[in-house]
């Protein structure tokens, strides 16, 4: 571990390898793998190779502005850290380390419902940093509402409702290991510490942990979730509400028509429906439909600065960084996440300058060509 900390790798594949060397095979596989034959997981990265940047030169790029401002949140380099659950299986400090690292760079952190630490503990670690809360909608609506209210109280400034998981994807490699962190109680803190959830139990989660986990699993998914139901969130929070997991332009249109505050174009990093559209392939039609009326965020496949330039050029307002930072967490804890964030910012800055841009928000399709 300390050897890796002293020499954290720079390239994504080496970072992934460093995480693999640090972790047991089950948690490593949990992060690395996708659903099914992992066609979509691969497609997410391959889609970036089919777009090439055609840079402009002699544009005076001596001063550059990488920032974006979305829904009252400042993104110094047009990216945020994606919600990734169960970070405690990667490092003892889990989300606390990631939230601290994000705050050190002013990069907003999106905390997952299934975090190892509670949203209040993550908020304390994040301090003055900016943070959003990712919501998995529980079939016990009062638990959902309680979590949203707790997030508002704890200083989260937007709610990101993830809608691409009405049921869990068929993750063959996790099934091979029979490794399901939530069933082991690994990402359960937000439920176990929730007063409404606790009120459903006859004994506290400390006294009867197994009973509490069984209750959690029984209310965790809400396959009956609909657009109408998600709108009920409006009654319980005044925070901006974003919908994460949009791939179809018609769904983007519904999100705009129903006045949601933003969307995240995402296929959950290839972990849900294998064989579905790569996120980048889905982006242009969605951006054309949304027409700038609400912010469009993007994830699934962002590895390097040039990837972010391509996503912004195809219509995203900002991107979410996923697997790279949790590999950094696994390999080096808080310093590992800081290393990944720092390098991503430098890489993105360099990519913007080398494209011939001075503002990230100026990226547009004129600088891209489709290649085979
Ligand atoms: C290990 C792991 C756990 C994740 N947990 C969540 C989660 O709790 N909530 C959520 O909305 N998305 C979750 N995601 C999806 C990410 O938010 C994001 O969409 C995905 O990582 C993007 O793909 P990429 O990391 O390959 O770029 C998770 C992804 C991974 C890899």
Structure in words:
The protein is an alpha/beta fold. The protein has a single domain (2-370), classed as Aldolase class I (TIM Barrel, Alpha-Beta Barrel). The chain has helices at residues 2-6, 12-22, 25-32, 39-49, 94-104, 119-126, 141-153, 172-177, 189-192, 195-199, 209-220, 227-231, 233-236, 249-257, 279-290, 305-313, 323-355; strands spanning 51-53, 68-70, 73-75, 79-81, 109-111, 131-135, 159-162, 241-246, 262-265, 296-298, 318-321, 368-370. The strands form three sheets. An eight-stranded parallel beta sheet has the order 4-11-10-9-8-7-6-5. A two-stranded antiparallel sheet has the order 1-12. Helices cover 45% and strands 12% of the residues. It contains 17 helices and twelve strands. Helix 2 (12-22) packs antiparallel against helix 17 (323-355), helix 5 runs parallel beside helix 17 and helix 16 (305-313) packs across helix 17 (323-355). Strand 8, helix 14 and strand 9 (262-265) form a beta-alpha-beta unit. Mean pLDDT is 97; it is low at 1-5. The protein binds flavin mononucleotide. This is L-lactate oxidase. FMN binds at residues 83-85, 112, 134, 162, 244, 266, 299-303, 322-323. Belongs to the FMN-dependent alpha-hydroxy acid dehydrogenase family. It holds the Pfam family FMN_dh.
Number of DSSP helices? 17
The helix-strand sequence is HHHHEEEEHEHEHEHHHHHHEHEHEHEHE
**Count of distinct strands:** 12
Instruction: Identify every distinct bound molecule in the structure, by name, code or SMILES.
Output: flavin mononucleotide
Helix content: 40-55%
Distance between the first and last residues' Cα: 41 Å
Give me the Rg, rounded. Answer: 20 Å
What would CATH call the class? Alpha Beta
Largest sheet: 8 strands, parallel
Strand order of the largest sheet: 4-11-10-9-8-7-6-5
Secondary-structure class? alpha/beta
Strand content bin: 5-15%
Overall pLDDT confidence? 97
At CATH level 3, the topology is: TIM Barrel
**Can you tell me the overall shape?**
globular
CATH architecture: Alpha-Beta Barrel
């Amino acid at each position: 571990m300390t050897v890796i900390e002293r020499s954290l790798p720079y390239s994504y594949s080496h970072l992934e390898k460093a995480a693999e060397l640090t972790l047991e095979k089950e948690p490593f596989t949990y992060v690395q793998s996708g659903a099914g034959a992992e066609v979509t997981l691969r497609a997410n990265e391959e889609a970036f190779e089919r777009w090439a940047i055609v840079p402009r030169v002699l544009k005076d790029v001596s001063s550059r502005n990488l920032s974006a401002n979305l829904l009252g949140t400042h993104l110094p380099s047009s990216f945020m850290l994606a919600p990734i659950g169960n970070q405690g299986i990667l490092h003892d400090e889990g989300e606390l380390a990631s939230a601290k690292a994000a705050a050190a760079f002013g990069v907003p952190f999106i905390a997952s419902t299934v975090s190892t630490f509670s949203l209040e503990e993550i908020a304390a670690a994040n301090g003055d940093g900016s943070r959003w809360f990712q919501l998995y909608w529980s079939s016990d609506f009062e638990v959902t509402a309680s979590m949203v209210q707790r997030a508002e109280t704890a200083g989260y400034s937007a709610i990101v409702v993830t809608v691409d998981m009405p049921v869990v994807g068929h993750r063959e490699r996790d099934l091979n290991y029979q490794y399901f962190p939530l069933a082991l109680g690994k990402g359960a803190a937000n439920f176990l510490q929730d007063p409404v959830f606790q009120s459903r139990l006859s004994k506290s989660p400390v006294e009867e942990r197994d009973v509490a986990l069984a209750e959690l699993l029984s209310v965790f998914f809400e396959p009956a979730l609909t657009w109408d139901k998600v709108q009920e969130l409006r009654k319980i929070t005044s925070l901006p509400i974003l919908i994460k997991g949009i791939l179809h332009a018609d769904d983007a249109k519904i999100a705009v028509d129903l006045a949601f505050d933003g969307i995240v174009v995402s296929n959950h990093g290839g972990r849900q429906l294998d064989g579905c559209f790569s996120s980048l392939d889905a982006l242009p039609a969605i951006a054309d439909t949304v027409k700038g009326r609400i912010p469009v965020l993007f994830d699934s496949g962002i590895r390097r600065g040039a990837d972010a330039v391509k996503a912004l050029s195809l219509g995203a307002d900002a991107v979410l960084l996923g697997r790279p930072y949790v590999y950094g967490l696994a390999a080096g804890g808080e310093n590992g996440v800081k290393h990944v964030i720092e390098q991503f910012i430098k890489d993105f800055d360099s990519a913007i300058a080398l494209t011939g841009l001075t503002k990230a928000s100026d990226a547009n399709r004129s600088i891209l060509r489709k290649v085979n």
